[in-house]
Amino acid sequence: MDVNIEPGWKEQLKEEFDKPYFSELVNFVKTEYRSNTCYPAGSRIFSAFDYCSFDEVKVVIIGQDPYHGVGQANGLCFSVNDGIAMPPSLINIFKEIETDLEIPFPETGNLERWAKQGVLLLNATLTVRAHQAGSHQNKGWEKFTDAVIKCISDKKEKVVFLLWGGFAKKKGAKINKNKHCVLTSGHPSPLSANRGYWFGNKHFSKVNEYLLQTDQTKIQW
Asked: Which among 14, 75, 101, 168 could disulfide-bond with 44, CB atoms 3.0 to 4.6 Å apart, if both were Cys?
């Protein structure tokens, strides 16, 4: 199946695109986008891959669903379009960066700048119906994103995986921890963060320490 995605990923995932489940998934997504308002925009569904090519991946952050509010989702997990109010989880991410690295709070919640440095911002499910969280779960996206994680784990070395919350930790079962760095913590959502499972994890400085130790360039968070 011909999928409009960054060429390096297209090559790595070509077997996945030809599997029956992926055809069924594409048909489901096309029907949903015709019949309902869905996010992100159709052209942004694979933005995580388009902004961060396979060859450039150094860090992987795993989210769950795209945001389902108007104008929020831009195809990168936890990220919102310029000019959109930051959701609570993203605010808590920036608060942790502020205390961990003393980087001031940014003006925008658009994380394209991270993606362009080699951070794959991967949601487990890449589409959602407006105002209906989880509405596109269990349709095939999770199988596809499991394959993406396994592909990175098998074919690359010294990648940092950030697994925040129980859902992301389950996705981490595909990662070879002997050749990659895996950091886990609670989710940055207020429910988890306010109970002490997020703040103070220092993941952002730890990522950069590992990258420098392995002769890679650090991320400008």
From this structure: 75
Q: Give residues with Cβ within 8 angstroms of 209, minimum separation 6.
A: none
Among candidate residues 55, 65, 146, 215, the one labeled active-site is: 65
User: Residue 220: inside a domain, yes or no?
Assistant: no
What's the CA gap between 172 and 166, in Å, rounded? Answer: 10
Range of the domain at 75: 7-214
Whether pLDDT at 3 is above 90: no
pLDDT of 195 higher than 90? no
Average pLDDT of the residues in 51-73: 96
Task: Give CA separation, 93 vs 139, 153, 221, in Å.
Answer: 29, 25, 10
In the chain, how many H helices and how many E strands?
A: 10, 6
Q: Is residue 2 part of a domain?
A: no
* Cα–Cα dist 138/132, whole Å: 14
Is 107 exposed, middle or buried (CB count within 10 Å of its CB: 0-12, 13-18, 19+)?
A: exposed
pTM (global) more than 0.85: yes
Radius of gyration in angstroms for the set of CA atoms belonging to the chain, rounded to a whole number? 17
Element (H, E) at 160: strand 160-164
Q: Look up the CATH number of the domain holding residue 87.
A: 3.40.470.10
2 annotated active-site: no
Question: For the chain, how many structural domains are there in total?
Answer: 1
Q: What is the β-pairing status of strands 160-164 and 181-185?
A: parallel
